[in-house]
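Human: My hope is that you can spare some time for a protein that puzzles me. I am handing you a single protein, as its sequence and its fold in token form. Could you go through the record with me and say what the backbone is doing? Take your time, and here it is.
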Amino acid sequence: MLSFPDSFRFGTATAATQIEGGCTTSDWYAFAQQPGRIKGGGRPDVACDGWRRWRDDLAIQKSLGLGAYRMSIEWARIEPRPNEIDQAALDEYRRMLGAMRDAGIEPMVTLHHFTLPKWLADRGGLLAEGFHTRLARFARVAAGALGDVCRFWITINEPNVLAAQAYLLGAWPPARQSPTEALRAHHRMLAAHVAAYRALKDVLGDDAQVGVAHHLRLAQPARPESSADRMMAHVFARVFNDSFALATCTGRMYGPLDALVTGPEGFRVAEARGTQDFFGINYYSRDVVRFSPGHAAELFAERSVPPGVEVSDLGWEVYPEGLGMIVRAWAQRSGVPVYITENGIADATDSRRGPFLVRHLAQLARAIADGVDVRGYFHWSLLDNFEWAEGYGPRFGLVEVDYATQDRRIRDSGHLYAKIARERVLL
């Protein structure tokens, strides 16, 4: 039997654009209007109608007995035009957070979860002059309005994924394909994280717990006997997986090059060291890496899934062991408490989500038993939702959503998760 301490937080996670609907001032709203951008032609206009139905969704969380919830606040909704703050939107977020606390649910708020106000995107988005100061200003506004009802904050969600999808692969706005711009965007987000971290601390003091939701994947060579595959796995892990996370832990991002690169207002990577009070991990799968001359834009790394392994509806390998390895490694590197800020599976039939949950939580329970400081797990996701460029096809929710009627139904995996959270054991 594996167990969890009484202090361990079991929760779920969502993001504003993916569930709220009703926001027409973001870059993703505009992007989704363009034909061919989103599979199936889906748009986040309504999503799960969460902006109007959040009380119903809170009641579901309460019925499941979950004690934590990670959500994002929509920057484009709060600041729809430059320097214009929508106080009514802030007030509604405050009502959400206050109701969560009244229900015994600890909120964790993400400031930047992939989306930008369209006015900022039109000025260059992540590469716009002053992006870091804009995010810091938004952090101050949010902290001033919500800081007394929210203790845990995420500055940026998955900066490595956003840099790759938006500026390297061209799948997300602004749909660029430039390795140079991808690296610049990555660096600019690090400067923005540091600025937002400092802003939150200035307003809220040390009572605020601030971190990053790092997207981390295990990278392993397809052919261990191949020196080229081993090198590509190492390079891919170092550049894509580790660089932003290492910067927050050690003040080193790309090695000796860091000393030669300055960011806005003279920002240097070394300033990022220690700018997290906890280490957030988003874990979904691993990458099996092979050297491929045809994948120059991805550092000559071709990623694949081994034949015959269990996969999600999106074709991602189910590999729980990777979570255990990543948690142990980064808890040691960071020296701060760890939260699993996302972990989940696209599984429309709900036939694999229960075993997925148990096997991944078992990795955490074993790590905790060995003394690793893991303090919480946020399952992705509470609800089926708008899954970015994949549209509404993937089903990640513990709760099934009928998009035509907006009816919610707790899946069997949701009841299983509630049982685990209640009993704090895995049999």
